[in-house]
Amino acid sequence: MSEPEFTARGVGIARWPRSLTRAGEVRIEDGRLALLTSYGSEIDSAPVDAVRAGRPWFAKPDEAVATVNGTRYRLTLHKDRGGSGDAEEARHEDAEASGRFLAALKRAAGRR
Question: How many Cβ atoms are within 10 Å of 68's Cβ, its own excluded?
Answer without folding.
Answer: 20
